[in-house]
## 1
Amino acid sequence: MAAPGIARDALARIGRVDAARGYFEKLLAFRNPVGLVSEDHRPATRAMWGDIPPTYSVVRLIHSPIVACKAAEGGLGR
């Protein structure tokens, strides 16, 4: 999920914080029972595809809200 994480961060950085937040909330719905997300998923069935890289999952779940909060506060350059 690294690429979608980059997309969320980019949305926040260009001032589309609400879109980034919505995208992030959709991602949270795809977590497995221990809170990780796979590299890819099929939205229609919520099936996870590919590996579940814990480092990317955890880092993106922490990093994206930080970027969105900073963008909302005007702390990121555009």
Note: The chain has a mean pLDDT of 76.
## 2
Amino acid sequence: MKNAAITIERCVGFHALKELETRWTALHTLDPRAGAWTHPSLLIGFHRMFRPGGEPLVLAAHDGGGVLRGVLPLSVKSE
């Protein structure tokens, strides 16, 4: 695989997640196995409803060309 370099972008908070949402939605649409529970809008809604003292943290993997290839959604508790 040529240009196999992967970079990881750390997206913390709702503002950063909103910036990632369009690319994440496009990636989600490309995967026929992706379910509703992996859609970015569900993560946003989940955090607003069930994690009121926390904020989303998403690690986004991009290939050498800058194309989003994967996401790891997490949550951090605000201090």
Note: The radius of gyration is 13 Å.
## 3
Amino acid sequence: MEFKIEKNIPIPVRGKWQELADNMQDGDSVLLCYNKAMSLLRALNKRSIITGFDGTSKKVSGNPPKFRVWKRRVKKNGI
């Protein structure tokens, strides 16, 4: 059986949260309800080693409460 090995083929984006995470820049934020905020945080943190970015969030007052999610550069060695 023969296989063709290919290089430099990008891995496709897996969903809307990963696409949003990829389009955000360092310091950008989005205001979302809890479930959506957690989905975006998972997308940001899932690939933090590869991208060099992760996510953080803060609860914002409201009824129902909203959460602001930021994309931030991962600090290496506390720097």
Note: The helical segments are 16-23, 34-46, 48-51.
